[in-house]
Design a protein that fits this description.
Elements: H1 2-16, E1 56-58, E2 76-77, E3 79-81, E4 97-101, E5 108-113, E6 118-123, E7 125-126, E8 132-135, E9 138-143, E10 148-154, E11 158-165, E12 169-175, E13 184-194, E14 197-205, E15 211-219, E16 225-230, E17 236-243, E18 249-257, H2 261-271, H3 277-292, E19 295-298, H4 302-314, E20 320-321, E21 328-330, E22 336-338, E23 344-345, E24 347-348, H5 349-352, H6 356-363, H7 365-382, E25 388-390, E26 393-394, H8 402-412, H9 419-430, H10 437-443, H11 456-476, H12 480-489, E27 497-498, E28 503-504, H13 534-537, H14 545-552, H15 555-565, E29 582-583, E30 586-587, H16 606-619, H17 636-645, E31 648-650, E32 658-660, E33 667-673, E34 676-683, E35 691-697, E36 700-701, E37 706-707, H18 709-713, E38 716-723
Parallel strand pairs: 34-38
Antiparallel strand pairs: 1-3, 2-7, 4-12, 5-6, 8-9, 9-10, 10-11, 11-18, 12-17, 13-14, 14-15, 15-18, 16-17, 19-33, 20-23, 21-22, 24-25, 25-26, 27-28, 29-30, 31-32, 32-37, 33-34, 35-36, 35-38
């Protein structure tokens, strides 16, 4: 049986690998399993770039490492759902689960679901990775114990399932109660319209406080009956029965919509006109090849090529499409709106403002422009720019004003049509009396003794970054009052740096420091820091590195502290789960550390930056299921890899310069829009030649360790000349 499956899987792969004659097959280098183990939390299944639908397996466990609904270690699957998060630290979604099964071979599993506080009983199948196949836009799983083979693919707003049964009587369970992680169903409905069509909705509450997905589904075979199966004492699912005595194969097309069943049917009609599974899968792969082809690299080896293109793939799962083919979408105010531009959700901005958003502005200007439209619509509907948006819901997850930072970057790079309106949105969002800003306005910083919430240092440091970003846009627009006010407020980070201990630390309203003080302890949600410690947050001043150097007293003192940071070890405490990927106290598995290695460039120690960056690239990214050292965080971990592997990183997140690190590829050609390309060539690059001896831009020698955004998107050639020693 296994040999038969492997031959079938090979045939399936051959079918979906077909691309147009002029299109390079980048998808062959992607391994979607990378990051599916450990704490990576990545989505595994079938989707298209930035698509609304992510159709893939859903597992039964309700635990942290199952935030995407899938973890490589698990062996059970309860069905195949249509919405998933990728790489987040909180679980949600998992809407509209379909599970094919043979009633004669049914298996049930009861497993305690902690957040649901009930014994849940599910029809389940075994997930054997040897019988599983996943490539961009395609997923398959054979469950021979139950006589079922599953193939999945997707378009932007629809999923397609192909189920092959061995038995004469078969069923498909439609489970509208089960979700992922925090998600709990509050209402659902399923209507059988005729023998081949069903429709309904699922409303739930979780990380997203209140969201609804409508669906429309069509089957190739007629429904001959139905049963109700209990999942818990309060929840149930509908089993649709089919006669497979003559035709063993049933295909299901599912349209999804955040607005209505009518829109779900319209999405389905627009994106899947027939019953062509291989055609849908081939088109999905072509879409991935088109997007992955935005960067063409010459790698050092095949392993690096797999890591690179899988990372690029992970940066293109989110943001996710949130508007229907007719332009309608569910707004942040809960009402239906319409836009000529695609609208997006899954905005993990505290993470992605650091690298994923800057990467998008370089290689995907169309998406960057769509982000500006999405942000402004969210602002007009909820009265502030997004913080962490999930399916039309503002979760207010994480600290600071990351939406302001991203909007400023988009304004300064030319992606915003109405900058005065965007500036007003940024100003309003930055003056609200919420999440610590009311204290920032009153005291000039956030005192720990005046706030019922914790994490005051992290909040204030993040607000300082957004305030500095806002001030840049205000200056651009000639708003001197706003530029002065927010420029001055952006210096609030200095209030937290204690020169006697050399760290940022909590401060009371009377100016006294919090005691006792331990720079190593990272107490989750109960200290002055968000998912980190004083060692990590002391460096969170990417908008004013020069000022931070001055705060340490001299470049030498700054360098000594930075050197120590990358080697010193200490007890972080028992609740530091999010502080992973440690190099000394540098924590690559969480985002506040991501810019720190590049700070060496500001004190003329680029070779030390090269050493640290090359170490992280080589030692903290792998081509196996545990290949991401922390939560993928909607593409941020991978975006850091993509930018750093070509030798560049934007330290200041609001239109800052792209600093040099240590490229690990030999060559990269980036499509930067308007038919232009920007090429990076690393001459004599090798595992030993980690240092940049010299660099030229379009043949002109560079006497600096950075280039500007405008220099990149103007097109040209950046050449690094690598060596194995530094001078």
């Amino acid at each position: 049986m296994k040999k038969t499956f492997l031959l079938a899987a090979l045939a399936a792969l051959t079918a979906v690998a077909c691309t147009t004659s002029h299109q390079k097959d980048y998808a062959q280098f992607v391994d979607p399993y990378i990051g599916s183990g450990g704490h990576g939390h990545v989505f595994v299944g079938a989707n298209v770039p930035f698509g609304m639908v992510q159709v893939g397996p859903q597992q039964i466990r309700d635990a942290w490492d199952w935030c995407s609904g899938y973890h490589y270690s698990d062996t059970l699957v309860i069905g195949f759902s249509h919405t998933h998060l990728s790489g987040t630290g909180i679980g949600d979604l998992g809407d509209v689960v379909l599970m094919p099964y043979d009633p004669a071979k049914t298996r049930y599993s009861s497993e305690y679901m902690p957040r649901k506080k009930a014994e849940a009983k599910h029809v389940y199948g075994y997930l054997d990775h040897a019988r599983e196949q996943v490539t961009p836009g395609f997923y398959s799983l054979e469950m021979p114990e139950y006589g079922i083979n599953v193939r999945l693919s997707a378009t932007d707003r629809t999923g397609i399932h192909e189920y092959t049964f061995t038995g004469d009587e078969s069923a498909i369970l439609v489970d509208l109660c089960s979700g992922i992680g925090w998600d709990g169903v509050t209402d659902w409905n399923l209507t059988v319209l005729d023998e081949n069509r069903i429709e309904g909705y699922r409303r739930s509450s979780g990380w997203a406080n209140d969201h609804t997905w409508w669906f429309a589904a069509e089957f190739t075979e007629p429904i001959v009956g139905q049963d109700t199966l209990a999942i818990t004492d309060k929840e149930s699912a509908i089993a649709l029965k089919f006669d497979t005595s003559k035709n063993k194969k049933i295909m299901v097309k599912v349209g999804m919509s955040p607005v209505s069943c009518e829109n779900a049917w319209e999405n389905l009609a627009a994106e899947q006109k027939g019953w062509d599974f291989d055609g849908v899968a081939s088109a999905a792969r072509s879409r991935w090849n088109e997007e992955l082809g935005r960067i063409d690299i010459e790698p050092m080896d095949e392993k690096q090529q797999r890591i690179f293109y899988t990372a690029l793939y992970h940066t293109m799962i989110a943001p996710e499409l949130f508007s229907d083919v007719n332009g309608e979408y569910r707004g942040a105010d809960g009402k239906v709106h319409e836009s000529d531009e695609n609208q997006y959700t899954i905005l993990s901005l505290w993470d992605t403002y650091r690298a994923a958003s800057p990467l998008m502005t370089v290689i995907n200007p169309e998406m960057a422009k769509a982000m500006a439209s999405t942000f402004m619509n969210i602002y007009n509907q909820q009265g502030k720019l997004p913080v962490w948006h999930l399916d039309g819901n503002e979760t207010d997850c994480m600290v600071g004003n990351p939406g302001v930072i991203v909007m400023a970057d988009l304004c300064l790079k030319g992606f915003v049509d109405d900058i005065p309106a965007a500036l007003e949105a940024m100003k309003v969002s930055s003056m609200l009396d919420e999440r610590g800003q009311e204290l920032l306005k009153e005291y000039g910083f956030i005192p720990f003794d005046k706030s019922s919430a914790k994490e005051t240092v992290s909040k204030a440091l993040e607000f300082a970054i957004s305030d500095a970003s806002l001030a840049k846009v205000a200056q651009l627009m000639g708003d001197s009052d706003a530029a002065e006010y927010f420029g001055k407020r952006s210096e609030s980070w200095k209030m937290y740096h204690d020169p006697e201990v050399g760290f940022a630390r909590g401060r009371a309203s009377d100016g006294s420091w919090r005691t006792p003080f331990d720079p190593f302890k990272a107490i989750h949600m109960k200290s002055d820091f968000t998912e980190g410690n004083a060692w990590q947050y002391t460096w969170l001043v990417p908008q004013d590195v020069e000022g931070l150097v001055e705060m340490f007293g001299s470049p030498q003192a700054f360098e000594d502290k930075l050197d120590t940071f990358f080697v010193i070890e200490g007890d972080l405490g028992p609740s530091a789960d999010d502080v992973t990927g440690l190099v000394g106290q540098y924590a690559h598995g969480n985002e506040p550390s991501h810019h720190i290695a590049y700070m060496y460039n500001y004190i003329d120690r680029q070779y030390k930056c090269a050493e640290k960056v090359r170490h992280i690239l080589d030692e903290l990214y792998f081509d196996d299921h545990s290949g991401v050292c922390g939560n993928e965080d909607a593409g941020q971990m991978s975006a850091w890899y993509i930018l750093s592997s070509v030798g560049l990183y934007q330290v200041d997140p609001a239109a800052g310069d792209f600093h040099f690190g240590s490229p690990v590829v030999k060559k990269a050609v980036m499509n930067v829009g308007d038919g232009k390309t920007f090429t990076v060539i690393a001459h004599d690059n090798s595992p030993e030649n980690i240092y940049i001896k010299s660099a030229t831009l379009n043949g002109t020698p560079l006497d600096r360790t950075y280039i500007t955004y405008d220099e990149i998107v103007s097109g040209g050639v950046l050449e690094f000349f690598m060596t194995d020693c530094h001078e």
